[in-house]
TrEMBL record:
This is Insulinase family protein. The lineage of its organism: Bacteria, Pseudomonadati, Pseudomonadota, Alphaproteobacteria, Sphingomonadales. It comes from the Bacteria. Belongs to the peptidase M16 family. One of its GO terms (molecular function) is metal ion binding. Residues 234-420, 720-898 form the Peptidase M16 C-terminal domain. Residues 83-196 form the Peptidase M16 N-terminal domain. Gene3D superfamilies: Metalloenzyme, LuxS/M16 peptidase-like. Pfam families: Peptidase_M16, Peptidase_M16_C.
Length: 973
């Protein structure tokens, strides 16, 4: 059941989605209606995934096996209401390809959506859009080394819609139209996807895989395949792959949603039960074990090493301790061992992090055990040297690990790690009732893929708490030692400089003896919130009132005398979930033209620089065993702290946020570390088209406003910790503060905690007039695109076109309609450049409307293409803009974007984060509340004529800013 990885992966559960009257649909749980809903092959007394294990059966699932070999797992789940999540897993991925089939598994994934038994060419995606399933979010597929999974989150899943959708999915899986015509259409799309993903990061991943798994199938079988194999593919070849692997014996259907499990099981049996594929089942190929070189010393098994030169990329080292993957008996004792492993890893990783914070030779270092694609059981060690002296960094990292291999951890270290896991498992139990069906379905698919079982959250918690006496220093030491034992160790050094190191030098550094006795551990006692200084004198709110009438009446607005406002909303249907959001200050308006470098450093170092008497290490120990977070972001007109917590930790969470404003600490080390990080990664921002856009696009969209320029290395080196303090002390002290606490709360206890924290803050300083008045400008249209250059492959380019719109809360109704216009534009771009031209995989269009400022909004379209296709993009974009402005969208086009929005609102509207996002800032800006009742109408009742008028105003009213990113050697335009 892999308790540890699953628990950590889903630490933050999916947003709760329940209906409210504003968009209520009919009660839609599909119940048993007759004999047609009674499955024949369900086996509640013999669930196939639990055979051979003592893990308690999660009886929320109903399992079955059909005579043709297909297996299924289904369960009822009402989160969100009226939705059923469908997953069809094929036990075949890129590891199942032969040498002349590289890329076929992923290619077939595309072809199934192209045309099938019940769908004509290009009909599948529009069909599901009309049903409210958004492309990518609700309708998707993935191909990995070991599986291919088809996904549908079906909203508004009435009995007939559910029946039809399972039938259609069955037709796609069983009878795709693998014709020469469809192959000719989809191979260019797959090659475009491959081209777009072939970034420096992808090349590094390929080189790492080839080295670590040399001699195994995994070494040269990435899902993207090879250009040669894809271009040579014929319909007969692809059909042979489909026939070989797409058969019921290799298929698992998983469904979780708002329907009786018997109904779901019967649907699977009805639409997959007669599936037969002639011939014998092809045995799964042998994935192989890590290859041990002849003569390798078992006591120091350092094997192959390599140096990869990737100009512009930051230095890093990864080495892997490799063991054969083994099919485990997934029982409780096995999972107890995993938990001890996890605690051991957590302790080592905390020590590595503390060494880096204390001024080590590396920026970060992390240890992670992973079962890799049923090909290897590996422990990976990765770190980033701060300078070209990678050998000192390696010695330091290995010394920390060496210390952990000979000295047992302290009880304090164990307690901190155990407390963190305990809160994870507690949280899973508390939120079980609101776990989304899509997450449950994905969990089941992942369990099938790794050949393990699933378990209820109560099982996780009881197993963990039942073994507390096994987390001894001796046991942790033993499991730490096992994590670093293996048959072979392989290492890769990534460097931007040719000739900086050799494979032999890396081998020698990995094999050299290392002394861990000099490593100092920080075993200080954890602080207690009760011992921390108060924020100030507690002050109750001077006013308490509903935020507004109607749908926001249950949100209470509090006003404090010091200039702080608060919004609180109790959501009884979301047990265990509380979101705290603190909005303050001026955001980007608060920076002077020469302070962009401190904005960047603030995003990376402000939280880590501490508060009051606490540095980063002390805060880590303080919050152990609590569900507390500290996210920070900068918006156009506001700064924001945010965290997901729970009622029992809410007062402490509020204290940390308020203390950051009232008593900020200015440790130098986090600032210096943030500078080092930015310097190390700066050159990588030119490595491919999207990296260049990430570096420069906001600067260009803001008419070259220096606040939005990515700081140069010279600016980073010149930045000082004292100036950082000056800039951020000003930002933390200025402007109004709004605290929102939404979720499963006790309102009176929450108000009391707010009074002791944010109510106790000193009076806020107003924003200076010149700061409040700063605006965001959009550049003039350009006939010739701005040309940027990247250092990547010669066949990669990107292009954008953007138009100015607006901003501010008064325009919220219009901003919602602009989102529809952007979606319509994106659909047309998808049809034109991907489906017809095969020139790109991910055309993208979006609308950005800042609510906190009165300007700065824009709509943009973006594609990644070959350089020779850039002009096609601009021509098609202009054609789409003119056509939308001249004739508007068709009713079908409008339905394809409106219905997914309607279903998304219906699913989301009583999750507390939905309302928090809608009313954030509303305690100071009444227009946000005033424009909330029209939300549904603005999206759902927008006409084609309104869309046409918006296109005329914005897409033709400004000629558009055009930007293109080309390879360095591409000819000038």
């Amino acid at each position: 059941m892999n308790i540890v990885s699953r628990a950590l992966r889903f630490l933050l559960p999916a947003t709760l989605l329940l209906p409210v009257p504003a968009l209520a649909q009919e009660f839609c749980t599909v119940g048993i209606a007759g004999e047609n809903d009674v499955p024949q092959y369900a086996r509640p007394d013999d669930p196939w995934i639990y055979r051979g294990t003592d893990i308690p059966v999660d009886d929320q699932w109903l399992f079955g096996e059909l005579p043709n070999g297909l297996r299924y797992a289904v369960r009822q789940n009402g989160v969100p209401p009226c939705q059923v999540s469908i997953r069809v897993r094929i036990d075949a991925g890129s590891l199942h390809e032969e040498d002349d089939e590289l890329g076929y598994a992923h290619l077939i994934e595309h072809l199934l959506f192209r045309e099938s038994r019940d769908f004509g060419p290009g009909e599948a995606i529009p069909h599901f859009q009309r049903m409210g399933a958004a492309l990518g979010f609700d309708t998707n597929a993935l191909t990995s080394a070991t599986q291919t999974v088809y996904q549908l989150n079906l909203p508004n899943a009435s009995r007939q819609r559910l029946e039809d959708s399972v039938r259609l999915f069955s037709g796609m899986i069983r009878e795709p139209a693998l014709s020469d015509e469809n192959l000719a259409a989809d191979v260019p799309v797959v090659l475009a996807e491959r081209r777009e993903r072939l970034s420096p990061a992808m090349r590094i991943a390929i080189a790492t895989r080839e080295l670590f798994y040399d001699g195994q199938r995994l070494a040269n079988r990435a899902p993207m395949g090879t250009v040669e194999a894809l271009q040579a593919a014929t319909s007969g070849d692809v059909r042979a792959f489909h026939t070989r692997w797409y058969r019921p014996e290799n298929t698992v259907v998983v469904m979780a949603g708002d329907a009786a499990p018997q109904v779901l099981a019967a649907l699977v049996e009805r639409h997959f039960g007669d599936w037969q594929v002639p011939g014998e089942v092809t045995p799964e190929p042998d994935f192989g074990d890590p290859v041990v070189p002849p003569g390798l010393d078992p006591a120091n098994p350092v094997g192959e090493t390599a140096v990869l030169v990737e100009p512009g990329q930051p230095r890093s080292v990864t080495y892997a301790v490799l063991r054969p993957w083994e099919q485990v008996v997934d029982n409780l004792e096995y999972n107890r061992g995993l938990l001890i492993d996890a605690v051991a890893q957590a302790i080592v990783n905390r020590r590595l992090e503390e060494q880096a914070r204390a001024g080590g030779h590396y920026l970060y270092a992390v240890v992670e055990q992973e079962d890799v694609s049923r090909s290897a059981d590996a422990t990976f060690v990765s770190f980033a040297p701060l300078t070209e002296d990678w050998e000192s960094a390696m010695t330091e990292v290995r010394a920390v690990i060496a210390n952990a291999l000979v000295q047992p951890p302290s009880e304090a270290e164990i307690e901190q790690a155990v407390a963190q896991f305990d809160v994870v498992f507690q949280d899973m139990v508390g939120q079980e009732r609101i776990q989304a069906g899509s997450v449950l379905a994905d969990n089941m698919v992942n369990a099938v893929d790794i050949r393990e079982a699933v378990a209820a959250p109560e099982t996780f918690l009881s197993v963990f708490r039942g073994m507390r006496d096994r987390f001894t220093p001796e046991a942790i030491l033993e499991h730490t030692q096992r994590l670093f034992e293996g048959q072979v160790i392989r290492g890769l050094l990534l460097t931007p400089e040719l000739g900086e190191a050799t494979a032999d030098e890396l081998h020698a550094a990995l094999a050299a003896p290392v002394d861990g006795t000099a490593i100092e551990r920080d075993d200080g006692e954890a602080a207690d919130f009760a011992d921390l200084p108060p924020i100030g004198e507690a002050a109750a709110p001077v006013t308490r009132e509903p935020l507004g009438p109607g749908i926001v009446q249950s949100t209470e607005k509090l006003t404090f005398a010091n200039g702080v406002n608060a919004l609180i909303r109790d959501s009884e249907n979301e047990p265990g979930r509380v979101t705290v959001r603190v909005r303050f200050g001026a955001g980007w308006r608060g920076f002077a033209d020469d302070e962009a470098v401190y904005a960047l450093l603030g995003e990376r170092a402000l939280v880590g620089s501490g508060l009051g008497p606490l540095g980063q290490n002390e805060i880590d120990r303080l919050v152990a065993g609590r569900k507390i977070g500290f996210d920070f972001g900068i918006g156009e007109g506001v700064f924001q702290f945010e965290a997901m917590t729970r009622a029992e930790d809410l007062a402490d969470q509020l204290y940390l946020f308020a203390a950051k404003l009232a008593m900020p600490r200015w440790d130098v080390a986090p600032v210096e570390r943030a500078k080092a990080s930015a310097l190390l990664t700066y050159d990588s921002l030119g490595g491919d088209p999207m990296s260049v856009l990430n570096r420069d696009l906001q600067f260009l969209l803001r008419d070259r406003d220096p606040r939005f320029a990515t700081p140069t290395p010279e600016q980073l080196r010149a930045a000082t910790a004292s100036k950082f303090r000056e800039v951020w002390a000003r930002q933390l002290a200025q402007g109004p503060v709004e605290v929102s606490v939404f979720g499963d709360i006790d309102p009176e206890a929450t108000i009391d905690a707010l009074s002791r924290t944010f109510g106790a803050l000193p009076e806020r300083q107003p924003l200076p007039a010149e700061v409040a008045a700063r605006t965001l400008q959009f550049p003039a249209a350009n006939a010739q695109p701005i040309v940027l250059r990247h250092d990547g492959d010669a066949d990669q380019a990107a292009a954008i076109i953007a138009w100015p719109t607006g901003g501010g809360s008064a325009g919220l109704p219009q901003s919602r309609k602009l989102e529809l216009l952007a979606s319509l534009f994106g659909n047309r771009l998808l049809d034109a450049m991907r489906e017809r031209e095969g020139a790109t995989y991910t055309p993208f269009s979006t609308s950005n409307w800042p609510v906190d400022v009165e300007d700065g909004g824009y709509m943009l379209a973006l594609v990644q293409v070959r350089p020779e296709d850039v002009d096609t993009f601009f021509a098609l974009s202009q054609q789409i803009a003119e056509d939308l402005a001249t004739t508007g969208p068709t009713q079908d086009e409008l339905a394809r974007v409106v219905e997914p929005v309607q279903q998304n609102i219906f699913r989301a509207q009583t999750g507390h984060t939905f309302w928090l996002n809608r009313v954030a800032g509303g305690s100071f800006d009444p227009l946000r509340v005033a424009n909330l009742p029209s939300l549904a109408v603005d999206y759902l009742a927008t006409s084609g004529l309104e869309i046409q008028a918006l296109a005329q105003r914005y897409l033709l009213g400004h000629g558009g800013l055009k930007v293109v990113v080309l390879p360095q050697d591409a000819p000038p335009r």
